[in-house]
Amino acid sequence: KVRDGGYSGINVTAPFKESVMQYVTRPDSVTTRLHAANTLIFNGTEVYSYSTDYLAVKEILRTARSGSCNIIKNGLVIGVGGAGKAAALALVDAGYKTIIANRTLDKAKEFAAKIGAEFAGLNDVADIVKNAAVVVYALPLKIEELKESDLSGALLIEANYKNPSFLGAPNYVGGLEWLVNQAIPGFELFTGQ
């Protein structure tokens, strides 16, 4: 429908970041690995896919480096939808030893194996977060398993910008900053500027 409407591309949001891949004819290397995208560009009959979520997390990591470079950098990603996948891949590509936690363990296990990460259930996050330099929270609501956790030692990046769960936490990068950091490369892809 959007292709028939004369659009040159679209931004894609949850819960469609994975299912939209069925329409893509030219995935880039990142969306091929993720099997998820949040930006599509139309060029004739071709549909190109990109993950500006991946680029946003890489930029946030670059500008808000946490931890010492002399120790192993541990990362935890909670949630393995399209945004969580993008964040996990960005952490792995940035050299973090990454654990992906999800309620559906098989989904976390499958994606973790694909990108060279580890996986865990949500019931394990309270212990894992103690050693994490970066925690990316990519779920729409705060989970019980984190309610008593001390997140002050980690850089906390949250994807949710409408109803954030951790607003005001120390070392917090909120969903609005993520949104801006994914919109900038999206704008460049749409306009060439």
Description:
- It is a single chain.
- With 193 residues, this protein is an alpha/beta fold.
- It has six helices and ten strands; from the N terminus they run ββαββαβαβαβαβββα.
- α2 crosses α3.
- About 3% of the residues have low confidence.
Query: What Rg is obtained from the alpha carbons, in whole angstroms?
Result: 16 Å
The coarse overall form would be globular
Structural class: alpha/beta
What kind of sheet is the major sheet? 6 strands, parallel
Helices, by number, come to 6
Helix residue percentage: 25-40%
Low-confidence stretches: 66-70
Q: Overall mean pLDDT score?
A: 91
- Span from first to last CA? 26 Å
Q: Which helices and strands, and how do they pair?
A:
Elements: E1 9-11, E2 26-27, H1 29-34, E3 39-43, E4 46-50, H2 52-63, E5 74-78, H3 82-93, E6 97-102, H4 105-115, E7 118-121, H5 125-128, E8 134-137, E9 155-158, E10 172-173, H6 175-191
Parallel strand pairs: 2-4, 5-6, 5-8, 6-7, 8-9, 9-10
Antiparallel strand pairs: 1-3, 3-4
Short description:
By secondary structure, this protein is α/β, with parallel strands linked by helices.
Structural key phrases:
193 residues; alpha/beta; four-stranded mixed β-sheet; 6 helices; 10 strands; 32% helix
